[in-house]
Amino acid sequence: MTFRHILLAGVSVMLAAGSAVAKDDEAPSRRFTADRVFDMEYATDPQVSPDGKRIAYVRHSMDRMTDKDTGQIWVIDLATGSNRPLVSGSTGASSPRWSPDGTRLIYATATDGKPEVRLLYLDSGRSFPLAQFLEGPSEAVWSPDGKHVAFSMFVKGEAPSFAKAPTPPEGATWNDGVKVIDKLTFRFDGAGYLEYGATQVFVLPVDGGTPRQVTFGDAEMQSPEWLDNDTLLVSGNTAEDRDLDPVESEIYAVELADLSIKPLTTRDGPDTSPVVSPDGKTIAYRGFDDKTLSYQQADLYLMDADGSNQRPLAADFAGDIGETVWAPDGKSLFVMSEDHGVLSVYKINLNGKVSQVVTGLGGASIGRPYADGSFSVSGGKKPVIAYTAGFTDKPSEIAVIGANGKDAKVLTDLNADVLPYLDMARIEEVKVSSKHDGKEIEAWVALPPDFKADGSFPLILEIHGGPYSMYGPFFASEIQRYAAEGYVTIWSNPRGSTGYGEDFALEIDQAYPGHDYDDLMTVVDEMVARKYADPERLFVTGGSGGGILTAWIVTQTDRFVAAASVKPVINWMTMALAGDIAQVVRRHWIRAEPWSDPEAFLKHSPIRFVDKVVTPTMIVVGEEDYRTPAWEAEQFYTALKMRGVDTVYVRVPGSPHYIASRPSRLIAKTDNIMGWFAKYDPAKKDEAKEKAGDE
Questions:
Q1: CATH class of 3-20+423-691
Q2: pLDDT reported for residue 16
Q3: Which residues are CB-neighbours of 399 under 8 A, at least 6 positions away?
Q4: SS3 letters for 133-187?
Q5: pLDDT per residue over 541-599, tens digit each?
Q6: Which secondary structure element, helix H or strand E, spans residue 521, and what is its range?
Q7: Phi and psi (nearest 5°) for 254?
Q8: Cβ count near 255 (within 10 Å)
């Protein structure tokens, strides 16, 4: 894929991006140029060994030849500080997990395109595949005695058919047979059109052999957790109407001796992610009572090993409960929660007392500044926590801290060979009071290397997706690219964002887009008031939820010179009938039927107000996006064309919803957006006129 083929034939844009490759008589650019994306590395999934002496993690790098984000398993020795690849030459590896005794490690990878779970012996450094897998295994977990591994894997089913096709003559070329579909969810983003079957749970001896399937049926069963060496906990939704109620799930106990299965939870709402206490007597899990709202935070619960005595823990905790780990003494739990733009780890004792242990997790990607991260806890009397540390000026690193919240230390510096030699954007925090109702809105602004608060710089408002997600003060290649080309770039968490409490997120319940628009405009007003931006050089872009907000903004105001709406929802009616999360949109977000109450869907759809748009608007979407499918973007593009509004439609070949899944896609998206903005930038037009006059 070449970048010139991304835009439609005949469309010419003036890219502002410079090349990172210097001519023989030039010094290398100190700006964050487009191909610097390929130089970036970041760390994810830190797993501290049971004895707390080593941390295995995934070190990500961008492969220039295959155009992929690839992973290697590396290990850090906490005593010496050494940081080495654990399996020499391994690429595409992920999910390292220590054996209970710390002598072995399993991880996921692929050989010649075939998925594998491999077992590595630490004493010899030798590894071998545990079995031959026809499908991709995932979620592998050790049994307490270290003799077995449980994992989930897709099991093919029989597709429906109403006719038996005749056999073609030998050598004949016939059309492929018809495909009969009778499921509500028949395609999904990142997977395409779904095969018939379901994910099930398997058990495998670590000495190798044939995986034993232990769950069955049409319902998805996954997220295995060992209750003891003879019993597995799994999560799934076996309800008859599960396609219509996709958030529902229960926790089940599977007895491996006879494969009997027993539900441990039964309420209306999701119960997921069981984790077993060190003594095996208590199960912690996450869930909530489903009130059929567009956003509902997960709470923390405990139950006895047989499913009895179910009770909430720290019911007044304000945040959403994320990744949960028992302390080795079984007297408390560590939980991760979104916390005002960052991720924090909290300690919750069995009386419900909460204390913060570490904050600043996040930034575990290179694209946009989302808060993302993970952590793990060692065993022993003085456990340590390994976690992904986020930064404004570099991608995520591996860090460690005592479980008492003391002695934090960052252990890696994966981009020390690149970033110190570049002029990076300076990041500032911004807080404003929304002009709608005075609610505090948190934001961050990236300032170009040559920035001066003189009111002359162009500004890009970058809007996050979700909408129930959260940006934070983290490194992002897209933000650095914009800043390197001279754009003051602002990103924020308007109402509807997570990390600020359930009430703040629910401000957009059945009102999206709504007053989140006012929050965003307040942020822009602040940048103009500070003279950070020229009010005549304002631009707006965003992806997914940010894409619909971008499209909504141009139906409400003409203050932006140009816009780029990336993978947007344009029509909630078509989204509720043909997107891969259609039932969530209909049942939880809109809470109406499109055929009987179309106004409920259209009143917040940009397509309804397309006659108000005058702003030149680029539409960008992945050709294999089934989350906000291409036909959403095409409705807006076609309507704008019909109305004579300047527009262009950019299709990213092979891309699902997550366009930045390949480095070149990230570069193409970012640089084409800047090219579109440069085309309409009044300062660029003035420069072009002056140049033409001189000539």
A1: alpha beta
A2: 38
A3: 386, 387, 388, 389, 408, 409, 410, 411
A4: CCCCCEEEEECCCCCEEEEEEEEECCCCCCCCCCCCCCCCCCCCCCCCCCCCCCE
A5: 999 999 999 999 999 999 999 999 999 999 999 999 999 999 999 999 999 999 999 99
A6: helix 516-529
A7: -110, 120
A8: 14
Beta-carbon contacts of residue 553 (< 8 Å; ≥ 6 apart): 517, 520, 540, 560, 563
How far, in Å, CA of 406 to CA of 397, rounded?
18
27 pLDDT tier (thresholds 50, 70, 90): low
Ramachandran area for residue 454 (φ above 0: left; ψ -120 to 50: alpha; else beta): alpha
Q: Which CATH architecture has domain 181-200+211-313?
A: 6 Propeller (2.120)
Report d(CA 384, CA 652) in Å as an integer.
Answer: 44
Nearest to 313 by CA among 330, 332, 327: 332
pLDDT in tens, 112-152: 778 889 999 999 888 899 998 889 899 999 999 999 999 99
Token duo for residue 498? 């997570």
CA distance 43 to 53: 19
Bridge-based pairing of strands 459-463 and 538-543 is parallel
Closest CA to 303 of 285, 290, 288: 285
Element (H, E) at 687: helix 682-694
Q: For the whole model, what pTM was predicted?
A: 0.92
Cβ atoms 501, 421 nearer than 8 A: no
Quote the tokens at residue 695.
Answer: 């000539």
Direct distance between the N- and C-terminal alpha carbons of the chain, in angstroms, rounded to an integer: 36
Task: Classify strands 617-622 and 647-652 as parallel, antiparallel or unpaired.
Answer: parallel
Distance between CA atoms of residues 247 and 674, nearest Å: 39
Do residues 150 and 226 lie in contact, with contact meaning Cβ atoms separated by under 8 Å?
Answer: yes
Burial of 162-177, coded b for 16+ CB within 10 Å and e otherwise, reads eeeeeeeeeeeeeeee
User: Which token pair is 216?
Assistant: 């069955």
What percentage of residues in the chain have a pLDDT greater than 90?
83
Neighbours of 50 (CB within 10 A): 18
Within 10 angstroms of residue 558's Cβ, the number of other Cβ atoms is 10
The domain ranges of the chain are 3-20+423-691, 181-200+211-313
Structure tokens at 350: 């069995």
Distance CA 369, CA 365 (A): 8
Q: In what order do the strands lie in the sheet with 282-287?
A: 271-276, 282-287, 299-304, 311-313
